[in-house]
Please model this.
Amino acid sequence: MLTFILKRLGLALLVAFTVSFISFSLLFLSGDPAAALAGETASGEDVEALRRLYGFDRPMLVQYGEWLFSALRGDFGESYYFKLPVASLIADRLQITMTLGVCGIVFALVTAVPLGVVAAIRPNSLIDRVALFLSVAGQAMPSFWFGLILIVVFAIQLGWLPPSGAASWKHFIMPTIVLGYYAMPAIMRLTRAGMLDVLNSDFIRTARAKGAGETRVLFKHALRNAIIPVVSLAAVQMGFMLGGSIVVESVFALHGAGYLAWESIARNDLPTVQALILVFSMFYIVFTFIADVLNAWLDPRMRSA
Amino acid sequence: MSETLLSVKNLTLDIPTGSGTLHAVRGIDFDVRRGETLSIVGESGSGKSLTSLAVMGLLGKTIKRSADEIRFADIDLLKARKRVMRDLRGNRIAMIFQEPMTSLNPAYTIGDQLTEALLLHRKVSRAAALARAVELLEKVGITAAASRLSQYPHQLSGGLRQRVMIAMALMCEPDLLIADEPTTALDVTIQAQILRLLVDLTTEMNMAMILITHDLGVVARVADKVAVMYAGELVETGPATEVFAAPSHPYTRGLLRCIPQPGKTARGAALGTIAGIVPSLVGEVTGCAFRTRCAHAIPACRDPIPQRGDASHAFRCVFADGALSEEGKVA
Amino acid sequence: MTDAADPLAREIRGPSPQQMLKSRALSHKGLIFGMSVVVLLVLVALLAPVLAPHDPYEQSLMTRMVPPVFMGGTWEHPLGTDHLGRDYLSRLIYGARVSLMIGAIAALISGVIGTAMGVAAGYFGGKVDAFVMFLINVRLAMPVVLVALAVVAILGGSLTVVICVLGLLLWDRFAVVMRASTLQISRRDYIAAAQVIGASTPRILLTEIMPNVVNNLIVIVTLEMAHAILLEAALSFLGLGVQPPTPSWGLMVSEGKNMMLFEPWLVLIPGVVLFVLVLAINLMGDGLRDVTAPEGRS
Model:
């Protein structure tokens, strides 16, 4: 188990390092970040001045090295647009995004797991069909559009919920549903498939042969085994969801990290964009690492390995 | 003679499939007395395992079960409610399955799984249940029994797991033990040990056992009674010694020719085979199912087949002597 | 032996694999529905100049935000007009071209990249496999929407850029699935047999491996095509994808958003069409998987 964790940690660090390099170099794609920053109307001298100010005239690898070292100390430079340290800018905005992410994954789990279980117990029943429909529809639903429809119905027509902002818990209901709905289909399908698989296994028959009741068979014997991959999927989905928060936050004007990303991209605020790509990647890397460790811990076969 | 523990009369199992009803088991009768070992022998797919699951009430939802009688002690299992069946299972009727590798839950320790049945059916403390588990693990020949309780199934070998399965089945001292191919998945050396163990335990605990197997060698060593099953029918039933000494049904004789017998099979002689394949049981099945592979089949084999022999040693064949005299001519 | 007419002696023979495939496909409602919708929309996209009642770019300040027929409009503009007076139906029809083209080409690019990586990893194993797995991990760690937005913003939002960015980002599922299927296939005895008789590696990959993984590949192509279409719509919705005045469904939702309070149909119509297309492609993909790999179904 310890060897596994160490190996996995090594991989995570290597991935993190590579991602940091990619997110840094992405912004050199335009060829000349100074020109991009200065805008189309700037004169040659302006561009030159900017180039020297931000050190774009030095070799890229040197710039990367400096950036990485500062980043490791929590210093991502200063935002071109907000004229504030990027790190504190992101830290301020992360709270909303994390709240949204946690609410979203909890919503997805509490709806998808029971649906998946019931669908597996009664294959081809009405509930199974409804669950299948929800998951197929969920995968096809553009989340920005789903958000807008919710706003039209619940905020504008019915007036039950505020359409945008983050002032109260009510503001988080619709964004949570939209974000959670994104993770639901995968979780539901995996729960259903896992339960079906486990329910057909020999040890379930053994449990029944012992005289265990249906509830006990389902929850103690079957779900305990079927839930293992779901836990790790949920952690991975959580990582994806934080990355996907950019769409949801812009629809509901929630000023979180995703919204910040959108603003900075639209304003060519390179240091902020670089830092955000790195931060979101780190979340994914950390979540998948936790997922794998959790998976290994939940599965006795891997725990003792 | 002791009382009849389990009595099954005219058991029929139908499985609906896409292309019609599969008549998996058709009108079979058998009974087991206390302290007795009945062996049901047959090829894969002959309906042996389904029969045992039908007794346990563990058939899949799609399989239709009907019978004139399935009686365990004084309980009518045909009319028993779910609750009653659950109280019987793992308590008075226990079962051992074929696949020790997959029949244990990978997520729980051996101790948890061993004690589960006892804690479900008896009012005992967890400590007492664990003590009983250790006692039984020792009885089935597992060394360092106490330390096994905290191990997980994947940490044990196949032979050990099957011993755990046996111990698990014995936790509540059942009256009837159903063992479905308990040694098939194991190494040959382990097979003999496990079999010996089962026989000793049945004697010691005065249990009845239904041993399901395709291995005639196993039957010869342990069974009191044999029921030979072919394509969903019992073609011959009787005391083991009689059936082996004087097999009456052509199928039984065919089976016995397939295994070498010390002293009987001549050195260098080819072992017998039964030509042909098992028939499809989808759609209406009448007459003798073995007729498509039987060397002595006549048109009358397609009509209802009379029961021959006496109550203790019975067989079904159109020929009064099970075509024994015909066999001489062919050979 | 009994005569041949004995019902018990009949041969147990089912329909041929091709027949079974055909009958499974024809009885799979999702597949039939998905495929019909996709074929229909592809035809609409191809015949856009013939089908569209108006020029999708023609603005008319006199007829702005005319409601669709079912909301009191006229047949002159069956689905109404947008805030610049452009015919909504015509823009939808031309928008199908954008969505389908982006989806198809992006899926093709990522399919080539991902399949090459996955097959190499699965077949060669060892270091190649470790390296590919590492690349997949890196790719998965990058937030797709964010990276795509940033790159499109830097390079400028043209159709080509959007297609290339999506194509270069969406290869992960191809690599994962192709790796798994290749791994499974290359353990089979007939691969060993081919190696033993001295078949070259390219030959084995092409004639022994590819035919056996192509079913899975087709399924992933459809699912990733749907994924690319959704992402393009999201990018365009955020204003950093396909740029106006190109008719893109995501962009139409974005443009309609400001008038959503008074004219919700401006948002509703392109969203529904987008949903139906993605749903149809997904149903087709799921259906193909069910039909070609029936044992994988519950």
About this structure: Residues 4-82+205-329 of chain B form a domain with the Rossmann fold fold (CATH 3.40.50.300). Chain B touches chain C through 13 residues (CB under 8 Å). The mean pLDDT of chain B is 85. Chain B is about 30% helix and 25% strand.
